[in-house]
Amino acid sequence: MKREIKDSIVVGAALFAMFFGAGNLIFPPAIGLFSGDQWFFSLIGFFITGISLPVLGVLSVSLSGGTISDLASKVGPKFSLVFSTILILAIGPLLAIPRTGATVYEIGVAPLGTFNPLLVSIIYFSITLFFVIKPSGIIDKIGKILTPILLLVIGAIIGTGLLHPIGIPVTTKLNNAFSFGFLEGYQTMDALGSIVMGGIILVALIEKGYTDRKKQIKMTTIAGLMSGTLLTLIYGGLMYLGASIGSNVSPDISKTALILKITESVLGANGLLVISVAVSAACLTTSIGLTAIVGNFFEKISKGKIPYKATVVFVCAFSAVMSVVGVETIVEIAVPLLVFVYPIAMVLILFNLLDRYLPHDAAYKGAALGAGLIGAVDAVKALNFRALNAIFEPIYTLINYLPLANVGFAWLLPALTLSLVFGLRAQRTTKLETSM
Questions:
Q1: How many CB atoms lie within 10 A of CB 304?
Q2: Whole-angstrom Cα distance, residue 367 to residue 130?
Q3: Which residues cross the membrane (predicted)?
Q4: In whole angstroms, what is the distance from residue 208 CA to residue 203 CA?
């Protein structure tokens, strides 16, 4: 029993560290700054998409079988393959992994002096490659080595900021703080990452000798709750610090400049060195976890034809080049893809958790279709092409009339409606076939 608790803590610490990467450090302070005295309501919205959903995602993957393919399989094998590949690329070399390298340079290295961004990126991803080139023991390396460093440094920043406030949250003109926080939670990519992180957690438990499914689910649940608690405390602290410094900075300050200003205000001259360590640890844990996931995914779907080592080497090399474009650019690129994929990911997570209550597996197809249609329209809108916006304007207006559209849930009613239609129709067809 003691061993189970110890291993659950290590896995939970590693899961927290993999979640707490680039976006998790730079987005909460920016949300706090924009929300001002309403920062707590933004935290509640952020809690849903940035904390609760990722934890549920890990549990959902564990319940469905342990892989992203298992999670999406009830929609259909072709959909599962396409969706899994898009998701892996999104949280992998196209967006999330390069963003960790860009953040390390902009927050952790550039403030300390003049350095070549490409050289810094190469060194950073070489360290990532060192950790992931051998897939076994990755969770232990993260949970036992990198997580304590991360918690110590971030805890020092937040703790000092709470004991010695840097200001008072100011009143802002934000109309719906909850909705703002909810939508900003998308940018962490953690709900998407959780779907694939669930797989690496399962592999780690199997490596430790836990082969019983019930025990795996129990330990995954404990690890998820632990990581969720840590994330809530740290997000809340960072959001408060962002709100507190509102009267001392321009509202147009960049996300990276904001976290640097906060750290300097809290810790003084040593702040730059502290934040450098914090950023490097936070981003490295995420980069290591996601790179390993990408390597495992392509080796599995190719049945060994695309070797794990070749994939992780390519991912590190590609990400080293991609990260040079900068954090803000990567964030802008991410928006259309995220608003399309997120609703689908959310219904898959929720439906797998509620699987026993669904009338038929066809319900998954209806839900994915409904969420995907709304997500596709939102993606077109996020592209912000004038010609497309003119064509889609009537659809945008219609979607705004859907229930909960103002808080980011426009996809919910179409997903539930089509899920019910598909599920009941398939159930009825099955009964007719059985009676014949």
A1: 8
A2: 41
A3: 9-27, 39-63, 75-95, 115-133, 145-166, 186-207, 219-241, 272-298, 310-327, 333-354, 366-388, 408-426
A4: 9
DSSP 171: P
For the whole model, what pTM was predicted?
0.77
Where is 9: in which H helix or E strand?
helix 2-19
Alpha carbon distance 19, 54 (integer Å): 8
Number of H helices, E strands in the chain: 20, 0
Mean pLDDT computed over 359-387: 88
Q: Does domain 2-325 have CATH number 3.40.1180.10?
A: no
Select from 175, 181, 227, 156 the least CA-distant residue to 29.
Answer: 181
User: In the numeric block, which tokens belong to residue 130?
Assistant: 């060192």
How many whole angstroms separate alpha carbon 147 and alpha carbon 193? 18
Main-chain phi, psi angles of 133, to 5 degrees: -60, -30
Q: Taking a C-beta distance cutoff of 8 angstroms, is the pair 309, 133 a contact?
A: yes
- Longest Cα separation, the chain: 80
Q: Which of 112-116, 134-138, 211-215, 378-382 has the lowest mean pLDDT?
A: 134-138
Give the integer Cα–Cα distance in Å for 200 and 204: 6
397 Cβ contact partners less than 8 Å away, ≥ 6 residues apart: none
Q: Indicate the domain borders of the chain.
A: 2-325, 337-436
How far are the Cα atoms of 94, 244, 325, 352 from residue 319, in angstroms, in the given order? 8, 35, 10, 32
Asked whether the beta carbons of 104 and 120 are under 8 A apart, the reply is: yes
SS3 state at 222: helix
The span from the CA of 316 to the CA of 125, in Å, is 5
81 neighbors 73 (Cβ within 8 angstroms):
no
Distance CA 103, CA 24 (A): 11
Residue 408 reports pLDDT greater than 80:
no
- Determine the Cα–Cα distance for residues 183 and 177; give it in Å rounded to an integer: 10
Q: Please write the tens of the pLDDT for every residue from 150-195.
A: 788 888 889 988 888 888 888 887 888 888 888 788 667 677 778 7
- Mean local confidence (pLDDT), 125-130: 92
Question: CB of 415 within 8 A of CB of 373?
Answer: no
Q: Which two tokens stand for residue 287?
A: 């980069």
- How many CB atoms neighbour CB 225 within 10 A? 14
Examine the pLDDT at 429 and tell me if it is beyond 80.
Answer: no
Q: What does R_g of the chain's alpha carbons equal in angstroms?
A: 22
